[in-house]
């Protein structure tokens, strides 16, 4: 039998996993997606991203996957850009200094989670 402390721990851990995630911003870039910093001329498909210095980690981010979800607008042009969906992307490129977002999604990946007219959105992302 479970005691009340064990049940409480399970409930708290469940809530923690729902609330977990780093906050940041996302922008998007358009094709062609090759060459990339990680894979050169290899075609990595379109559910890809470029990492800013925040997550690049001296190229260690190459190949990492992130689940990204739009959490809101960063500008008044598109006040409700989010679709309510999330997308999983693989880091294949580097977004150099001056990058406008934490993660620069392919246009196709951005379109899954937000209206591309927004250009830049607030996000939650998990590796």
From TrEMBL:
InterPro entries associated with the record: EGC1/2, Expansin/allergen_DPBB_dom, RlpA-like_DPBB, RlpA-like_sf
Domain Expansin-like EG45: 15-127
Signal peptide from the UniProt entry: 1-21
Top-level lineage group: Eukaryota
Alphabetical UniProt keywords: Signal
PANTHER family: EG45-LIKE DOMAIN CONTAINING PROTEIN, EG45-LIKE DOMAIN CONTAINING PROTEIN 1-RELATED
Protein name, per record: Expansin-like EG45 domain-containing protein
Source organism per UniProt: Rehmannia glutinosa
């Amino acid at each position: 039998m479970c005691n009340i402390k064990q049940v409480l721990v399970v409930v708290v851990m469940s809530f923690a996993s729902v609330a977990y995630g780093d906050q940041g911003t996302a922008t998007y870039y358009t094709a062609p997606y090759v060459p990339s910093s990680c894979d050169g001329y290899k075609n990595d498909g379109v559910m890809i991203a470029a990492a800013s210095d925040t997550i690049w980690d001296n190229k260690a981010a190459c190949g990492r996957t992130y689940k990204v979800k739009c959490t809101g607008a960063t500008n008044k042009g598109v006040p409700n850009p989010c679709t309510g969906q999330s997308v999983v992307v693989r880091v294949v490129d580097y977004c150099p200094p001056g990058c406008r977002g934490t993660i620069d999604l392919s246009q196709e990946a951005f379109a899954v989670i937000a209206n591309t007219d927004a250009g830049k959105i607030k996000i939650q992302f998990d590796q």
